[in-house]
Amino acid sequence: MLHFDTDYMEGAHPEVMRRLMETNLEQTSGYGSDDYTCHARELIRQACGQPEAGVYFLVGGTQTNATVIDGLLARHEGVLGAETAHINVHEAGAIEASGHKVLTLPQHEGKLCAEEVEAYIADFYRDETYEHMVAPGMVYISHPTEYGTLYSLSELEALSRICRKANIPLYMDGARLGYGLAAPGTDVTLQDIARLCDVFYIGGTKVGALFGEAVVAPHAERLPHFFPLIKQHGALLAKGRLLGIQFETLFTDGLYLEMGKHAVRLAQKLKQGFVQKGYKLHMDSPTNQQFVCLPNADIDRLSAHATFELWGPRGEEETVVRFVTSWATREADVDALIDLL
Amino acid sequence: MLHFDTDYMEGAHPEVMRRLMETNLEQTSGYGSDDYTCHARELIRQACGQPEAGVYFLVGGTQTNATVIDGLLARHEGVLGAETAHINVHEAGAIEASGHKVLTLPQHEGKLCAEEVEAYIADFYRDETYEHMVAPGMVYISHPTEYGTLYSLSELEALSRICRKANIPLYMDGARLGYGLAAPGTDVTLQDIARLCDVFYIGGTKVGALFGEAVVAPHAERLPHFFPLIKQHGALLAKGRLLGIQFETLFTDGLYLEMGKHAVRLAQKLKQGFVQKGYKLHMDSPTNQQFVCLPNADIDRLSAHATFELWGPRGEEETVVRFVTSWATREADVDALIDLL
Amino acid sequence: MLHFDTDYMEGAHPEVMRRLMETNLEQTSGYGSDDYTCHARELIRQACGQPEAGVYFLVGGTQTNATVIDGLLARHEGVLGAETAHINVHEAGAIEASGHKVLTLPQHEGKLCAEEVEAYIADFYRDETYEHMVAPGMVYISHPTEYGTLYSLSELEALSRICRKANIPLYMDGARLGYGLAAPGTDVTLQDIARLCDVFYIGGTKVGALFGEAVVAPHAERLPHFFPLIKQHGALLAKGRLLGIQFETLFTDGLYLEMGKHAVRLAQKLKQGFVQKGYKLHMDSPTNQQFVCLPNADIDRLSAHATFELWGPRGEEETVVRFVTSWATREADVDALIDLL
Amino acid sequence: MLHFDTDYMEGAHPEVMRRLMETNLEQTSGYGSDDYTCHARELIRQACGQPEAGVYFLVGGTQTNATVIDGLLARHEGVLGAETAHINVHEAGAIEASGHKVLTLPQHEGKLCAEEVEAYIADFYRDETYEHMVAPGMVYISHPTEYGTLYSLSELEALSRICRKANIPLYMDGARLGYGLAAPGTDVTLQDIARLCDVFYIGGTKVGALFGEAVVAPHAERLPHFFPLIKQHGALLAKGRLLGIQFETLFTDGLYLEMGKHAVRLAQKLKQGFVQKGYKLHMDSPTNQQFVCLPNADIDRLSAHATFELWGPRGEEETVVRFVTSWATREADVDALIDLL
Questions:
Q1: B312–A123 C-beta distance less than 8 A
Q2: B interface mutation test: which of A73, A96, A130 has the most B CBs within 10 A?
Q3: Aromatic amino acid beta-eliminating lyase/threonine aldolase domain: from which residue to which, for each copy (chains A, B, C, D) (predicted)?
Q4: Which domains are assigned to chain C?
């Protein structure tokens, strides 16, 4: 069976495992106060070009989003995001469980449109009853998006400019950031992100770590009292050094980007395979997730040989289907899948 | 100046005030345990044809919605409503502040479409990832809607049937229920509502009371432990008898419906005035709220003589404007406004 | 039957009712934007000697506490109060429902001890694990306390000094403030309170209004974005002018204090009655609530003629019992009760 | 330097690491739907003697407590625990952040007294105002407690009987359960716990795993819809199989208990060391945590050679200090520490 369900089907990159093994019986203090975590923090600051950044390590994406958003919003504010945003659809109401509304805007290939964000904020304050409504208190984007698409540098600059003008933070969910940074044709670097976003996270779970997400606040004062908030959200790992060791490894010798490139190359190869066989792409994604409209008969046929995800409920005749590669995907598996199309 | 901003610009119906005055120095126990409240409860049960109904009196609409929804939903569930639902737009995030997501569907003249509710629920459980999503745990409708429109009996029956099939409660926000029951052509009675909804509230604030909303659960066990929840939501009035006396008055000698009829008759007269002058209705409302598209020049001209609400931010050339009548509206004021058009 | 259960058994002071009646059919804008509310706000600012104060009118005490505390605390902070604090015992978990922990200290006749508050804060930050604990983010006191007792000016100054040193707000629950200000021997004035507290509320529900509490923030910026928070908490009255008219009346011609004096004089007379009959006071209260230890046999005997509250569960032989007077208590009733002892 | 700060200073038991390594590149589905997790679940059911139990794997203790308590309580209920309970002191308000109050009772060597729990519940419902108070909706105990002490079987049976009589669940926080089960003299087995508690968790983080806690509900229907709640709390690990593999290893060949025995034997040896040197125990703990009252001079002297935790803020002359052993503690280190005393 060939597995293309998602990018968290394996454990961790072998180098990550090697480091976890060789440090296993060392004794360190807990909750991220150890030297490995300290070093990982420093490496991330360097990679971002932000020597004063606040860097925090959490375990998973949903808890990271919930904790950051809770840390950024006042009680009367909500978070603006695309209707397809992970926080709006697939986090089981974690944002609302912390008391905050997700305010939605249309998605354009999974992305927010800067002009629409600007208009939303302007319209909000021009509404006479705005104090009865949830104020837009921050903007959430994902990069790559839930559809594998990417913001261009100019799109990101536009969003950043609007947020700064409105004096609200721009937050980027980087669950798959490695696959975005490694995409062919992207003009957005990690340093751009650190310059343009107020808070973002660098995803580890889906990019070579066993688990872990690194929250970066280039201006650390943007997330005051964040440590107790992490604890309150149940997102503080006792053996924090596990996160430190993993991110130290990911940010040594370019491993993070290298893994990204591997996955993206194979995903693009797979996309070409679909296109050449005449299938219709649901979205033209430059990263490691590929969305294809498959006739249900093809879905049934392929399911005997490969696993992948239906994107939403099964349609009457055809259904959008997602194929995902990762740092661990074998080229032979991609070739085998293409042969099956 | 003529006032058509809303239906809560005056105090209470004179008969309500008379009763509050004549009972003012009586001593009663607090929190709704007094005889007036007991009697009001009984009158409402009779009017609803539900002798076993749970009846609770709260102060205002937003707190009522937040408390009822909190009482009906499990933690993993959200409330389905139209995108224009009051709980989604104009309650400053009160539902989310209690931890619950508002799940939205398109509005059709302010109403939910039963088929779309059914499809939403069906699609939800057909999605393989549904346990990562907020489950539709109840349906919220308003009657009249935020646009003054009404469900027909068959529409209400369809929603009720779908909810019961899905085993989730149907909740009706009746902030302006009196104006709905009194509308010409409606085939929905209070007893229909009590038969078809699991919980609803009869609005007092906008229909002749100083304040107050009566929550009705025809099957009282649908809202277990509701009293402490009212307290927890800060919605328990110390001098509960104020609510009891008011609703006792509203439900004596048909006052509630009589007030409704008065307001609706004048609103319809006003609507005819707009239509005859050639203005475009934004919505054809059979109740006490009228929504008209007015050129901005007309808005400016009328504003010198009358007050009314812009519905949303001011448009470039024309804007949707709301005119509202109430139990207290004077016919002379309506006539004067029509003359001004 | 003589009623001494509590101070919210009647409606409102006749002058309040007269004003509500004579303004009943006036039309005003909603949510406290009317002239009456504006004037009431001004009168309270004057009475407090704080011309720039933020003044907000809410409906009841629990919702006021929940909304203010939610407005003052960051997410990682809790509110310090006496173990007997109303917010800790009798608000059905409203504070926790907003996400905040009530941190308790021992009560001394219902009061917090300034030295214990200071030690708590100092110990907290000396604990190496303090970031795993809920930070003391504000101090809650009630004046009069739940036991009818009062802070002296020097006690209040000590608390204020400690809070300002720790840079956390001091908040006073003044549900029965009128009875405190009018107590014989108190050296605390409303202007002292406004000078020493960061936020407090002037109770109307228990002191002559139908309902209503006036939140005062002498430095308005202490409660930023408080209006949408009131709405979010379901504590915004549509017909806000009802609150404005009531507080305008209470703060005209010294009515608020006059009512306080009446109730306190009768409560002290009643206390003397108990003492002269040899009963043991549970607490020596200078205000309108009196707590007496009564043998259960006496409770049963008195219950045939008077109503009053058991304070906690009934004891085996004797029980603490509360008798309360109000602005509306008749001297004849007090005399009759004393005769029954 | 000798480290006795806590029991989460190392990584995982070598056998756990070996299994993680050898399965690292296998591909499995996410979120605990894999075969390893399925098998681990089965092994735990067997060890508990509860073939129908619901078993869920979460990442850490605070998130587990918050999620389980949120799953067990209705909105108007709180959780009863000792004043020293971890949920009351060291979880940064995570329980309150989910909207629930922690109701505290005195601790007796870290434990709840069954009679006091019974009296609390009885008093609560005998209080006439109980609907204004937070209802005791469940009981939280830890075993071992935060002070390393253990319930006896008869104490646990008494608590269970009281909870069942009151129809509220008994929940055990087993963060250090392995050290409790392995303690000399305990008469409480895992099967006893599964018989007497409604929900409990078996701690992995502190007992040989990298991280992970196994929630067990012997009657699975006690935690309905628990999966989406885990997701909502941000406690769902994407690579769920990491938890499955770890717990499969812990519950194979008696490893969990074996690790417990090792740590407890060394802790008891250390305790004897303290006693023989004349130090005063703060608590006589039979498990892996030892609490000793040390003169501050001794603390300073020892700190040059060993790490350990002050328990609360430093006292004026002496301070309670905690020494902890774990599955990984070396006997030579214990001997070296004893020599230093």
A1: yes
A2: A96
A3: 6-280
A4: 2-8+258-340 (3.90.1150.10), 14-250 (3.40.640.10)
